[in-house]
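Query structure, 398 tokens:
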């Protein structure tokens, strides 16, 4: 039976999305995530040494974020999505085979490099393939589901890490994590890619120059680039402190994981609803951010477990807004510099996240975690106000 063009296009979209959802799940289904700090501590590392490893990880991501995006525009994006999990797998293998500060440091560099290779390349590949199939309007919905798959994987890893650790120790957890990374690399090979490297640039430096030139020349691209870190950095950093916020409500430590699952469920719901939010436009995105910011302020300031329901709603709004900001950026970028500029947005997010970590430490050390969460609702209200002004200006222009 011969497929009609529409039916054939739907089949190709389904192949792309199935691969994407599987890849997104496997990238996050790493049992080491919830327990690697325990591995470091059991090896005898001090708090200072553990903190230095986290810093090394962050620095690696910052340094490689933009060059890796430019490389993705110059070569095969699928190649980078395959190579990234392999580097991460090598890092995890080092951790469990040669547990020491040096091995942990090398592992974090490999993990940071692996993550940087996929940042920008994944979004660019998916958007370009959807555009080729006349389905670019589905990007936000599809990426929202992909991020939801990743969040579900994180929750599943949280649930399985404890039993596997009790059964086989760090070796079993590490082996499972390496296996998942290898499966992610194998899944990456299933991504369709009809863009030839020859369509890009002769080198990654040429790709970088072209991408940055586009941002300088197009005001709408610059605005979309700034919106991504403005939406994603603050709540991405606050997520690291949610266990402390939950404990501050007075619940027993054994209850903390269950309330964290509530917050993660809110973020997952936001991912799944992101596609519907694309119809809202700039004013609608501003309303989502304002509503989520107010929910965060009221929920965190409440100081009770019931307030965490509002925090979960806030995280759902922020997750949806993050997907929508990414979709807005993709629509404004020309094909040749897509991965480069997506990585520039990622770099902005990394730097803004580091700034939030510093600000949070200053605020929470003198007050409380609830107060810090409340204060960091303000940037979202400010971003919403800027978007409303821009939306009003756009309507006023003939």
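Result returned for the query:
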């Amino acid at each position: 039976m011969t497929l009609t063009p529409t039916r054939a296009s739907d089949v190709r979209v389904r192949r792309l999305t199935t691969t994407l959802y599987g890849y997104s799940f496997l990238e996050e289904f790493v049992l080491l995530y919830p327990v690697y700090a325990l591995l470091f501590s059991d090896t005898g590392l001090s708090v200072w040494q553990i903190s230095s490893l986290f810093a090394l990880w962050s620095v690696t991501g910052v340094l490689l974020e933009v060059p890796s995006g430019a490389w993705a525009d110059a070569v095969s994006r699928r190649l980078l999505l395959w190579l990234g999990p392999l580097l991460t797998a090598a890092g995890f293998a080092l951790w469990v085979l040669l547990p020491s500060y040096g091995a942990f440091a090398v592992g974090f560099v490999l993990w940071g490099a692996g993550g940087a290779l996929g940042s920008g390349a994944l979004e660019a590949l998916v958007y370009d393939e959807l555009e080729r199939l006349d389905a670019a309007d589905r990007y936000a919905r599809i990426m929202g589901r992909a991020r939801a798959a990743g969040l579900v994987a994180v929750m599943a890893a949280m649930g399985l890490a404890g039993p596997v650790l009790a059964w086989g120790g760090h070796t079993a957890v590490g082996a499972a994590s390496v296996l998942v990374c290898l499966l992610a690399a194998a899944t990456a090979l299933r991504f369709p890619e009809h863009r030839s490297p020859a369509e890009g640039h002769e080198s990654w430096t040429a790709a970088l120059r072209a991408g940055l030139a586009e941002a300088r020349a197009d005001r709408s691209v610059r605005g979309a680039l700034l919106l991504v870190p403005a939406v994603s950095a603050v709540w991405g950093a606050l997520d690291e402190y949610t266990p402390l916020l939950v404990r501050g409500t007075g619940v027993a430590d054994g209850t903390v994981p269950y309330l964290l699952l509530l917050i993660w469920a809110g973020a997952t719901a936001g991912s799944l609803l992101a596609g519907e939010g694309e119809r809202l436009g700039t004013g609608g995105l501003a309303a989502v951010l304002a509503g989520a910011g107010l929910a965060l302020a009221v929920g965190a300031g409440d100081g009770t477990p019931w307030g965490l329901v509002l925090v979960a709603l806030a995280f759902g709004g922020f997750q949806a807004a993050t997907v929508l900001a990414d979709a807005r950026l993709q629509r404004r970028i020309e094909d040749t510099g897509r991965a480069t500029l997506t990585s520039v947005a990622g770099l902005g997010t990394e730097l803004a996240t580091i700034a939030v970590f510093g600000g949070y430490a200053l605020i929470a050390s003198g007050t409380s975690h609830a107060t810090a969460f409340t204060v960091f609702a303000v940037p979202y209200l400010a971003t919403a106000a800027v978007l409303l002004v821009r939306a009003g200006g756009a309507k006023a222009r003939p």
